[in-house]
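Deliverable D2.4 — example input (structure tokens):
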């Protein structure tokens, strides 16, 4: 997060710094900013409001630690920023690109990661839960209507069918709720990463942006992908005719058992 700095202007050493030069690495008041800008050697320096600069993150990443010189290029082969002495020494004969050109590609990648749509299937799953309840309730009402047409001894069979639908609804509901909880956690991680990307994209200084993006890119690579939508089981239809058939078969069995229990006419 950007820090508000109370540093004194490095040039006049009297007034509070209002601006910050990334290349010079010091604060400037409004008057000294104008003096700074008219010096040809400082043409192209990155100046920004000091309140937007995170000095703790910036550090000394603008200069080569080996040669103590300002970075001028990006070594494509080694994927590092290099200074003028690096060009003729450790990175001799390597392919170089400009800093702005290199960071522009990384910025584009960060922007793409923000704009890529996160699959949002929660609403569909929530609707499925609601419809699951509606369909289950409808089938239960049908079962109750069928039960009215049958005598008391069929209540046990009716109860079995109702329990099956209710149990299936509970199991499906639990599965959907578990999926929603998992996707919510994943979406929260995506949201946090996107928020951080949006913050660093506001960073004007290329090297500062590249350094901060390198840290958050590790988190991006470790993100767990959004889960695929689970199989959404529908409530199977309930046929009154099949219910009646089951009851009739039970009645036939009861009738057969009753007949078998009757004394034979020859024994009378």
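Example output (designed residues):
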């Amino acid at each position: 997060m950007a820090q508000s700095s109370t540093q004194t202007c490095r040039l006049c050493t009297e007034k509070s710094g209002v601006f910050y030069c990334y290349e010079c690495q010091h604060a400037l008041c409004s008057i000294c900013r104008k003096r700074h800008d008219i010096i040809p050697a400082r043409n192209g320096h990155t100046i920004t409001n000091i309140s937007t600069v995170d000095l703790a993150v910036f550090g000394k990443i603008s200069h080569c630690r080996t040669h103590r010189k300002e970075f001028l290029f990006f070594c494509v082969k080694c994927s590092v920023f290099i200074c003028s002495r690096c060009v003729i020494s450790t990175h001799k004969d390597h392919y170089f690109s400009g800093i702005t050109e290199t960071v522009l590609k990384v910025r584009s990648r960060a922007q793409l990661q923000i704009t890529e749509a996160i699959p949002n299937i929660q609403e569909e799953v929530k609707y499925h839960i609601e419809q699951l309840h509606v369909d289950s309730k409808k089938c239960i009402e049908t079962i109750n209507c069928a039960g009215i047409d049958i005598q008391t001894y069929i209540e046990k069979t009716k109860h079995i069918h109702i329990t099956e639908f209710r149990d299936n609804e509970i199991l499906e509901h639990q599965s959907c709720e578990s999926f929603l909880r998992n996707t919510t956690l994943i979406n929260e991680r995506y949201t946090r990463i996107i928020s951080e990307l949006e913050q660093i994209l506001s960073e004007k200084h290329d090297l500062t942006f590249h350094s901060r993006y390198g840290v958050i890119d590790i988190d991006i690579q470790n993100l767990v992908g959004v889960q695929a939508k689970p199989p959404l089981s529908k409530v199977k239809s309930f046929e009154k005719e099949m219910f009646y058939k089951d009851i009739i078969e039970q009645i036939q069995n009861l009738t057969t058992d009753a007949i078998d229990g009757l004394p034979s006419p020859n024994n009378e």
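Strands lie at 19-21, 26-28, 47-49, 73-75, 80-82, 96-98.
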